[in-house]
Structure formats: C-alpha cells, structure tokens
Specification:
Helix content is 65%, strand content 0%. By secondary structure, it is mainly α.
Length: 131
C-alpha cells in the first residue's frame, strides 16, 4: 500500500497496534503468529459483512483470542458501533472497507517484521513505538 494510505489512516493503524501491544504487554510470550491469525479472523468476519454474508465462526487458539477481542473492540469503536476507549473523542466513523484495508495493512507489516525479526519481530518492532 502506498505511503498516502498510511498517512491517511495513521491514527487507525496506531489504534489497532495499540490494542495489539496492550495484549503483548500482558503476555510477553505472544507471538506474531497469534497476531496474524487474529487479524485474519477479523478480516474474514468484516469481509463477510461487507458482502452481506453471515459472519463465519472464527476458531482461534487460546493465545490468539485476546488479540482478536482487543482489536475487534478497537475496530468497532472506529466503525462508530461502540463507545470504545475514548468516548469523548468525536471521530468520523470508518466504513467496513476502510477497517478491512487497515487490518490487511497491519497484517502485511506482521509478515514483513516476522520475516526480518523472527517469531516476535513484529511485536518487538511496534512495541518500541506504541505505548
């Protein structure tokens, strides 16, 4: 994706990565693979909604579940469907397509940093910048 995408959705990407880092800080054994599976499940569910299909059941490992839940909460907030962590902030709700695009962008980052840094390459990388 282009730099323009990252510039346009920087706050959303940071919100999602904050949710991921919050789980990592609670569970230092979390691996990039846990994050990747959680993101993949969310993408499948939101894509189903985009296409007016019923949401598929996503079965995750125990370590994947907290990432899925925390990121889902953040996405629902950014979609304008829940109060989220900062109810006082007046944000323009995103479309489902925008949320899916942001989740896919983060998933690309997970894959890149895992390849470069091993099983926790992505988590160690974003943990430096998100707190």
């Amino acid at each position: 994706m282009s730099e323009a995408f990252e510039d346009r959705y920087l706050d959303v990407l940071q919100n999602i990565e904050f949710a991921i880092v919050s789980v990592y800080n609670e569970n230092p054994d979390l691996a990039d693979a846990n994050v990747d599976r959680a993101l993949e499940g969310l993408i499948r569910q939101y894509n189903a909604e985009v296409n007016n299909r019923s949401r598929p059941k996503v079965t995750l490992a125990e370590a994947d579940q907290p990432v899925f839940e925390r990121v889902h909460e953040m996405c629902e907030w950014r979609l304008g469907r829940s109060e989220g962590p900062h109810a006082e902030m007046d944000l323009e709700p995103l479309s489902l397509e925008e949320v899916v695009a942001c989740l896919k962008r983060i998933r690309l980052s997970v894959k890149r940093w895992t390849t470069q840094g091993g099983r926790q390459g992505y988590l160690r990388f974003i943990n430096q910048y998100v707190s």
